[in-house]
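Predict fold of Uracil phosphoribosyltransferase; 224 aa.
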Amino acid sequence: MTIEDRGEAKVVTHALAKHTLTQLRSVETEQVAFRKGLVKLGRICGYEIIDGVMETAYETIQTPLTETTGERVVGMDDVVIINVLRAATPFVEGLLKAFPRARQGVISASRDESGGMDDAGEFDIEVDYVKLPEIHPEDTVIVADPMLATGSTMATVLEHVQEMGDPERLLVLAAVSAPEGLVRLNEQFPDVEILSVAIDDHLDEEGYIVPGLGDAGDRAFRTT
Ligand SMILES: O=P(O)(O)OC[C@H]1O[C@H](OP(=O)(O)OP(=O)(O)O)[C@H](O)[C@@H]1O
Ligand SMILES: O=c1cc[nH]c(=O)[nH]1
Ligand SMILES: [Mg+2]
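Predicted 3D structure, encoded as tokens:
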């Protein structure tokens, strides 16, 4: 099993996930490699969710030669993936390789960085576009965003997602999380499972994760 429960979050410890995240962290990694790295990490995390979070069931099948027992992942057709624009777009592209039939939602939510963090360590969040599917009781919902910093964006997104229904599992998937964001989400959304490839050290005074990987959206989209 390459998912470890660290209390505040489950951590994806697969060697290829760590390797890929290290490439993403490096300042030498330019836009195309950065974007491809996020796609790759999304695919690895998708496979890890299948292996470490979802369940399998046995069933009898007929091969061309004989009847035998096979194993299938339960609920592959009941997966919903939410793309938090914009940095999650390549991450979600990778996740979709693991869950090609997922129903998808899109929400544009981003930090208003003009006023900085407030005294509580939070940002105002601008929500420009919301298109989420209905969520059913049997669903596994994965809300993907590579960066979980103060948790302001994800808290806003989760409020919108919860309005769409009550799924069997609600997962937040991040590449890098800060302790501050994990504390906030665990307090505000105790039933949400958080999965991250890394839990970093702290946030700097501008709300960036340290050591982190910088601004994921800017690096993937070549903006400043
Ligand atoms: O936990 P928080 O403090 O809310 O920070 C995390 C958010 O910041 C980044 O998005 P950003 O606002 O930079 O938007 P972008 O994806 O368009 O770059 C990131 O992709 C998260 O959505
Ligand atoms: O470190 C951070 C924090 C928020 N958003 C990012 O892209 N990076
Ligand atoms: Mg950004």
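Residues 31-52 form the longest helix (22 residues).
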